[in-house]
Amino acid sequence: MAEWGLQAIIGPNDQYDESHHHQQQQHPHHYQHDDCFGSIDIKKEYDQALLFYFPDHLYDDHHRPVDHEHEHDHATTSTMEPVVTDELDQLYKPFYPDPPANASDIHIIHQNYLDPDKEIQQFQDQEQEIKKFSGSSSNTSQLAPKLKKRKNQQKRVVVQVTAAGLSSDPWAWRKYGQKPIKGSIYPRSYYRCSSSKACLARRQVEQSCTDSSIYILTYTADHNHPQPTRRNSLAGINRSRFKATPKSPTNHDVGKPVTKSKASPFHSSPPTISASSIEDEILQQSNIKEETLFYNKCVNIDQGHTMIPRVNDEDYMVFNDDFFEGLEDLAGYKMESSSYNYSSTNQFPHVFC
DNA sequence: CGGCTTTGACCTGCGC
DNA sequence: GCGCAGGTCAAAGCCG
Questions:
Q1: Is A267 left (phi over 0), alpha (psi -120 to 50) or beta?
Q2: DSSP, res A117
Q3: Spelled out in words, what is the top-level CATH class assigned to the domain A156-220?
Q4: What's the pLDDT tens digit per position in A241-270?
Q5: pLDDT digit string, tens, across residues A70-112
Q6: What are phi and psi of A138, to 5 degrees?
Q7: What protein residues sit with their CB closer than 7 Å to strand B?
């Protein structure tokens, strides 16, 4: 864990000293966030989040920095700028000294990525492996060991969300494990992308140890396929997990901390509801709203292409019009550039029933 | 029947 | 080399 940026989050606790207060008073957007994950330079993360969510806003088509102060003739940009500013204010409200009541559900708290050379190499390796196996019915599990990389070299994006924001990404995830984590009373759930067996994308979900209403999402690797127009299957995710089955936890177990058992060397499988269970319940309540929000945040129309923001500004996933039509199908209407304004009064249509 | 979660076992990275 | 902790596998069972 020595090299990757996540260290800033999950490293040893930093004491919240007075200098942080001075820093915050002097620089309204330079906040230091401390919790059980350690200390974070919010200004830096703010910039990175801006890049992650709105890379096209910071860079033009040629990946050159955009000077918005002198660029007001571009309709989309001039329209979007206040929205972007408001959105990022929302994103970082929980890190402010006194968070407002209407804090956003999604907060990027850290990303880390390889240096450009390694990033490109990893992408090429990944692409090569996909090409190698995509045409056959090869068992991907045999491929898995080859694709494994040192954990601290993997690209990661850490997002802090509220409970309502847990289901806010439209990818289809399949849970493959859950482990109690040292230093946290809540277990961590492991998900992989279920859209494609060759997809290396991973997601980890864990509850914040300081605020049980906050969830830490860690995304590892990238999807190597277009975003699905709808989640793979509802089998399993819509089932009632609160029926009285021997293994199923009860409703009272929601948010219950892990109690370590000596039955397993890993103290696994405590009688607590998993993050996925919480997520499923929330998903039923807010799936439409959150997928809508996430879609509106991530999708940008740019000259006939749809760009999904990725960690590197130079490393977009650019999809053709076919994919975009798929999204339109999902939306149920023809997107217009004005729809990028994802204000509360201009939400994505609710078609995820 | 396919896809899901659960969960014990196993694998791997890393610090000492 | 050893042990710990995190990450993954895979069998079992559930659900639509």
A1: left
A2: H
A3: mainly beta
A4: 333 333 333 333 333 343 333 333 333 333
A5: 433 333 333 333 333 344 344 334 333 333 334 455 666 666 5
A6: -60, 150
A7: A 1-2, 145, 148, 150-152, 172-179, 189, 194, 232-233, 235-237, 241, 247-249, 263-266, 268-269, 273-274, 276-277, 280
Torsions phi, psi for A177 (to 5 deg)? -175, 160
Q: Which residue has the tokens 């991907």?
A: A140
Q: Which residue has the tokens 């200098």?
A: A19
What is the separation, in whole angstroms, between the first and last Cα of chain A? 41
* Single-letter amino acid, residue A202: R
Domain coordinates in residue numbering, chain A: 156-220
The single-letter DSSP state of residue A39 is: E
Smallest CA-to-CA distance from A105 within A29, A37, A169, A38 is with A169
Residue A256's identity, in one-letter code, is: K
Task: Show the tokens assigned to A121.
Answer: 């190499």
Which two structure tokens, joined as six digits, stand for A348?
A: 């994505």
